[in-house]
Specification:
It contains nine helices and 13 strands. The protein is an alpha/beta fold. It has a nine-stranded mixed beta sheet, sandwiched between helices. The protein is globular, with a radius of gyration of 18 Å.
Length: about 300
């Protein structure tokens, strides 16, 4: 059932799937004929859209998720995750099967992800009427860059609903990411592949419509461009040992959007994002979990150096 107008806060579009988690002794993994994995190998629901939706719902925002899912065990895992956390889900049929990936996770929490791109067909589309109805039922749309997200841009722009997106490890050059970067009101990306983060952030703001552009930089914090001013956002110490960086960027986006929808200024939103991202790094790769609103606000109220 499509939510009525105003019934949700954020619609997350795309990015549903499953990951198979393999804990490896080191990254990069030296070649060997075989490795004995005594920590187990586990498949769990949770890719970028799932994690953003999970983070938003944990912070008390009414969240709905739209994507294509297969009629397969992996799709059942995704459906179960949404039921467990009270996240609305519109799952359209995906004949090619649910998106999946393998994550190799090192002892320091770093990861290497291997994505099965055969699950996303070039002809896949979100039905325009479904997309429009869901978008206009909410206050904000977060669009992932997974297929068929690019084909949803024109419809979403036509609704007038504020839009955010995450470019992940964009290098500032790949043309696939540009339509997302220039169509969104809030743009997230990682600084990992950027030689000059400020130049890329300003390029996005100048070429597009973004009111805020954020490049996360792991233990070095983040770069925030808002109102033409670049601000360095300090990293936040995780509340427990770091065990996995998977989902940290998605958690940052959820925290930032919570602040934005609460009327907070961009720097405060970025602080919320940094706190949520740090928390995500303490969650084992085999679990899907996110910081709650009370803990987020409590940590945000702590004195900062």
């Amino acid at each position: 059932m499509t939510p009525r107008s105003g019934a949700i806060d954020v619609l997350v579009v795309g990015g549903a799937g499953v990951d198979t988690i393999v804990q490896v002794p080191e990254l990069p993994l030296p070649y060997a004929d075989s490795y004995m994995i005594d920590s187990g190998i586990r498949t769990r629901a949770g890719q970028t859209g799932d994690f953003v939706a999970l983070g938003l719902a944990a912070l008390g925002l009414r969240t709905h998720h739209l994507d294509l899912l297969g009629d397969d065990p992996e799709g059942d895992l995704v459906r179960a995750l949404h039921r467990e956390h009270g996240i609305g889900l519109t799952a359209l049929p995906q004949p090619a099967g649910t998106k999946r990936a393998v994550n190799l996770v090192g002892p320091d929490g770093r990861r290497l992800s291997l994505y099965d791109t055969s699950r996303a067909r070039p002809e896949d589309r979100f039905p325009e009427e479904t997309l429009r109805r869901l978008a206009t039922a909410g206050r904000h749309v977060h669009l992932t860059i997974t297929q068929p997200g690019a084909h949803a841009l024109a419809v979403l722009a036509g609704t007038g609903v504020p839009l955010s997106t995450d470019l992940h490890d964009w290098d500032g050059e790949n043309p696939y990411h540009e339509p997302f970067a220039y169509a969104a009101d809030v743009v997230f990306l990682s600084a990992a592949a950027l030689t000059d983060p400020e130049r890329t952030l300003r390029h996005i703001a100048e070429r597009g419509r973004a009111e805020a552009v954020v490049a996360t930089a792991g233990a070095e914090g983040a770069y925030l461009l808002a109102g033409g001013e670049l601000t360095r956002i300090p990293a936040v110490a995780p509340p427990a040992p770091v065990v996995d960086s998977n989902g940290a960027g998605d958690a940052f986006a959820a925290g930032f959007l919570y602040g934005r929808l609460s009327g907070e200024p961009p720097a405060r939103c970025a602080l919320y994002g940094a706190i949520a991202g740090a928390y995500a790094c303490t969650v084992p790769a085999t679990r899907a979990d996110a910081i709650g609103r009370d803990e987020l606000l409590e940590r945000a109220a702590e004195p900062r150096r």
